[in-house]
Design brief:
heterodimer, A: 121 residues, mainly alpha, Arc Repressor Mutant, subunit A, 2 domains, three-stranded antiparallel beta sheet, 5 helices, 70% helix, B: 174 residues, alpha+beta, Alpha-D-Glucose-1,6-Bisphosphate, Chain A, domain 4, eight-stranded antiparallel beta sheet, 8 strands
Chain lengths: 121, 174
Amino acid sequence: MVQYSRPHFDASFAALSDATRRGVLEQLGRADASITDLAEKFHMTLTGMKKHVGVLEQAGLVITEKVGRVRTCKLGLCRLEEEAAWIERYRQIWSVRFDELDKVVEELKRKEKVDGRKKRK
Amino acid sequence: MDAKRESEPTPMKNRTTVERKSERELVVTRTFNAPARIVFEAWTQPELLKRWWAPKSFGVSFISCEADVRAGGSYRFVFEHPASEHPMEFFGRYIEVTPHSRLVWTNDEGGAGGAVTTVTFEERGAETLVVMHDIYPSKEALDSAIASGSTGGFSETFEQLDEVLVTMDASVGP
């Protein structure tokens, strides 16, 4: 159903090809962290860590959120999971809508029957 | 909400399916127990459309529902939701209107990334199969629609909708 796309895999593999980035994912699996925390933990400059986080973010493996002056990083939902969840939501919305449409359709059907009977009389 | 009313049999609801058919296409299908002309009418008369497009359970209500359903005609749906300060607007224009069989419209509220929606009505005996295709201009456009969590402007109401769906599953019939 959901199609795996080549570019997505490439982005994920590229993101995971680096030991630091794998370490960051492991770290975020334990707890969310700011870029500053991560830079300290991996003995890197802030700029260097920003780049790594950027690559992980691009691949959908990490999401970041800026609150005040601090950017917090956490594990992202895998894109495929995210997509499946979205599709299910979308289905639910249309399902509710269509159940409502059923009612309108039933009413039109009844009306047509009544009108048909009137015409025949 | 309501206790189960098993003594009142209600007709089985038909299932809605959604599938990402390709990198830039979503397909929604549903069968209705009525001839195509009736289902088509419910999609093309603004007064009828209004009654099912934004069910009460979504928490939104129509402020206005204008639809000039003919090729080249435009539509504009405006909703309000208690949680959102500004009304939500959806607009575009009809590219094709073929009575009882096909509707095509654009979704312009999101700018260039909007999908083109094609709905076909296929009569099968006493039933009508409705197939809705949303074709996005690119894979990126569909990906970003998914990533933003937007599902036609109703994302704000998800929590509420979840509650409703749970209630609906728990009760039989309307």
